[in-house]
Amino acid sequence: MSRAFVKDGEHEFEELPDRLISVHPNLVTPEGLAQIEAEVARLNAEFAAAQTAQDRAELSVVARDLRYWKARQLSAEVVTPPEDGAHVHFGTTVTIEREDGRRQEFRIVGEDEAEPAKGTIPYVAPMARALVGKGVGDVVRVGEGEVKVLEVR
């Protein structure tokens, strides 16, 4: 039988490969930095619990995630949105209208804090890139359609 199919306690749980880290600058809102810090604290607690339990499989998973979040914490660049409200910037909330009349509102945030289903998109997304610098009334081509900026705050 090949050694590839034999489990021995010594090598059963190897270190998992690192999670990929974006090549883009790690811009975050103040809230995004707080989320990263909370994740690092949570994972530190999980790591300690896994060490106490001597759970090697859990240690491997938590160690990988902890490496990722610590790297993101170290590289975080906090960006506070300007208060002018006249133009779309990182951290602002924008309301748009699509060609079919649908209105959408979202906030432009860092990659790790983006959750499109909750109304946040990463600043590297095509929609965010197209809207940055635009103001109320501007029409912007996104993909094969156009959107109109209705509100910026």
Structure commentary:
This protein is α/β, with parallel strands linked by helices. The chain has two domains: about 15-80; about 95-150, Transcription elongation factor, GreA/GreB, C-terminal domain (Chitinase A, domain 3). Helices cover about 35% and strands about 20% of the residues. It is built from three helices and seven strands; from the N terminus they run E-H-H-E-E-E-E-H-E-E. The strands form two sheets. Strands 5-4-3-7-6 form a five-stranded mixed β-sheet. A two-stranded parallel ribbon has the order 1-2. Strand 6 (about 140) and strand 7 (about 145-150) form a beta hairpin. It is elongated, with a radius of gyration of 21 Å.
Please describe the structure with a list of short key phrases separated by commas or semicolons.
153 residues, alpha/beta, Chitinase A, domain 3, five-stranded mixed sheet, 3 helices, 7 strands, 33% helix
